[in-house]
Amino acid sequence: MRQIGICVYGGASNHVDEVYLKTAYQIGEEIAKRNWTLVNGAGDTGMMGNAIRGAKATNGNTIGVAPFFFRQPGVLYQEGEETLYTRTMRERKAFMESLSSAFITTPGGIGTLEEFYEILTLKQLQQLDLPLILLNTNHYYDGLLKMMQDMTQAGFIDQSVYDLFKVCLTVEEAFEYLDQQLPVSPTK
């Protein structure tokens, strides 16, 4: 059976409310508890770094994917189990997708939105059929969801798109959903 990889998208900033960083850490822990592999952008800070720390604290497996130009002091998590390098950000996203069985989008900025919408678009075009979660911690994505509803009312997004992703308010809710969608991994 293929290793189950959970791709976690999220911002790289540490200058955010602590609730977001704790959420990322908890996601890493939950992935590790299930013997799944955390797949993310290999960053040392923000949501990425905290998810890695949570997975590692629970003896979990991690795979970080980063473009070569990120190899600068303080950018990449140095104690990651495995860091794979690409030439470009586009290659990075494709490689992360190829390693993943599901996707969790945590709070982040423009890069995180790009990642979420790329997976959502692939699902809409029936090029991908894997679980996609939008983790709406502290109602962070309420504005985004409102914008999407406005786009639906204007005729640019079909109502069926909302069936392609799951909005979860908590980490617990996200993993209850994933537990129903993914097979149990064998123990270590």
Write up this protein.
With 188 residues, the chain is an alpha/beta fold. The chain is built from 6 helices and 7 strands, in the order βαβαββαβαβαβα. The chain has helices spanning 18-33, 46-57, 89-98, 110-124, 142-153, 171-181, and strands at 5-9, 37-40, 61-67, 82-86, 102-105, 132-135, 166-168. The protein has a 7-stranded parallel sheet with strand order 4-3-2-1-5-6-7, with helices on both faces. α1 (18-33) runs parallel beside α2. The longest helix is centred in the N-terminal third of the chain and has 16 residues, at 18-33. The protein is globular. The relative contact order is 0.17. The model has no long low-confidence stretch (mean pLDDT 92).
The stretches of 5 or more residues where confidence is low (pLDDT under 50) are none
**Helix run count:** 6
Helix content: 40-55%
Report the biggest beta sheet as strand number plus sense, adding barrel if it closes: 7 strands, parallel
Q: Please give the radius of gyration in angstroms.
A: 16 Å
Secondary structure topology:
Layout: E1 5-9, H1 18-33, E2 37-40, H2 46-57, E3 61-67, E4 82-86, H3 89-98, E5 102-105, H4 110-124, E6 132-135, H5 142-153, E7 166-168, H6 171-181
Parallel strand pairs: 1-2, 1-5, 2-3, 3-4, 5-6, 6-7
Helix pairs in contact: 1-2
Summarize the structure.
With 188 residues, the protein is α/β, with parallel strands linked by helices. It has helices at 18-33, 46-57, 89-98, 110-124, 142-153, 171-181; strands at 5-9, 37-40, 61-67, 82-86, 102-105, 132-135, 166-168.
